[in-house]
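Notes on consecutive records. When two proteins share a document, each keeps its own sequence and its own token line. Never mix them. Below: protein one.
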Amino acid sequence: MPRWLIELFTWWNGQTMGTRFFTWRKGERVGEDQFGNVYYRSPDPARTAGGFPERRWVIYKGYAESTSIPPGWHAWMHHRAANPPTASGYTPREWEQPHRANPTGSPAAYRPKGSIVGAANRPKVTGDYEAWTP
């Protein structure tokens, strides 16, 4: 399927035509993370929202999944950090684990013992359980 057709009809595959046009006109590329997501900002005061001095957005590589944004970029996107990780020299602390996207709804999701979609069977009920009867 042609890329322009995907951008015209879907919002979950990267960017739409409107986002592409807005990024081309007003966007200033700030950086890219290790997953290939590209970050932009628009310091135009006429285009701000919520009282922030600039508008910030991300163009996801592939499927638009908000949990694929690493912590440093998340802080910048939500105006918790004034400078992006590329400009501020952000390095994760030694106790931080590497970023991992949320696996909910995927085959990598956590399925506890006894879950309907889990591989194991539910354990037998012990004698300390008494069923409620009305």
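Protein two starts on the next line and is unrelated to protein one.
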Amino acid sequence: MSFPLDYSGFKTLLLALALPPAPMLLLAAWGGWRLRRRQRGGGWVLGVALALAWLSATDVAGEALGWLAGQPPLLAPARINALKGQPDGAVLVLGGGVRRHVPEYGGGMPNDITAERLAYGVWLARRTGWPLGFSGGIGWTATELRQSEASIVARVAAEDYRLPLRWAEGSSRDTRENAANTLPLLAQAGVRQVLLVTHAAHMARALRAFETQAAPLGLRIVPAPVGLHADDGDTSFDDWCPSRDGFERVRYVVYEAMARVGGR
């Protein structure tokens, strides 16, 4: 069996090494090695690694990292009401991944990230009266997929939400291609305002790609983030304990920070 290290393979390997918990495990291994060889600081390194591994799966760490990365502003209800009835707008949802086969549904389905974005996109489309679009193909690392994200989401939107997609762009592999492949389609259809739906952690990277492509086409991009967290300042004991939500949130923020540096 061969494992060609093309771009997708390199990206998968890089993410596996850079995203939690791998860095903490490597640091713990180094600390344990130093401790076993009776080298100074081994115990401290091991302790720090274990503490970071714990924190990397908590909501508190996810909240702090999200705050440091910058959270985009909420698309306020008053703003949504002001857009209602304007004839030149569209709602565009960006893909965040799908599950190739979900046995209970008998086919592919959006993963949690895409499902949350789609639900908000449908909500916005119904309140503004604007048509709904989706952009997402087969990502660089999604080598197991045989259907594009757009084809799966188009079925879900039509069958489950009873709101067929006006545009379903299924050839893009990353955020830059989302913008390059989708915005010309919207401009040709007379769209001038685009409500861009993606997660708050992804919005800065998405805006960088979309605003670059939108300017020559005369399009205005309006951010419509999902996954915002209330800044109420309250934390509970549970927020300091590892959880699946905390772990996924930390990984997502770290992934987006890496992607922004990498330009994807």
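For the record: The longest helix spans residues 244-262.
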